[in-house]
Amino acid sequence: MARSTWATLASPLFDGDPRALDGVDTAIAGRRTFIKLQHRRHEGLGTVLRFEELRRRAGTPAPRLLDHGTVEVGSDEIWWAVLQRLGGRPSDDPLAWAMSR
Q1: How far apart are CA 45 and CA 20, in angstroms?
Q2: What's the rounded Cα separation, in Å, for the pair 76 and 90?
Q3: Residue 48: its pLDDT value, please?
Q4: Based on the number of CB atoms within 10 Å of its own CB, is 85 exposed (0-12), middle (13-18) or buried (19 or more)?
Q5: N or C: which end of the chain has fewer CB within 10 A?
Q6: What CA dihedral angle connects 44, 54, 33 and 1, to 10 degrees?
């Protein structure tokens, strides 16, 4: 996990404090962005990319994918993503937001 965390920090789009990272977290919040690291083998980068395509096509208020990549760890490849962090009601309670429209 630590290698993918440090690879993500190479992205200029993450605006968080790298000193707060412990190499164990799989979601790390910045001020306006957050990092999502692959945590389990079944989590696929393709899913993240499909969600971004759905977000773009539907115009839904969901975190926008800003950057992504992979890093080799032993014989495996782990992915990371930098996403936009949404504030306010939609991210706090998406169902209430959807029902209010």
Answers
A1: 25
A2: 35
A3: 92
A4: middle
A5: C
A6: 0
Strand order through the sheet with 65-73: 27-29, 33-37, 76-84, 65-73
Give the tens place of pLDDT for each residue, 22-70. Answer: 556 677 888 888 888 888 888 889 999 999 999 999 988 788 999 998 8
- Which DSSP symbol is given to 27? E
Residue with tokens 């993500």: 8
Query: What's the chain's Rg over C-alpha atoms?
Result: 14
Q: What is the pTM of this model?
A: 0.74
Mean pLDDT of the chain: 78
15 vs 82: CA distance, rounded Å: 10
Q: Give the up-direction half-sphere exposure of residue 31: CA atoms within 13 A in the CB hemisphere.
A: 3
Query: Which tokens hold the place of 77?
Result: 């490849």
Bridge partners for 71 per DSSP: 78
What would the mean pLDDT of 64-92 be, rounded to a whole number?
81
DSSP letter for 18, please: G
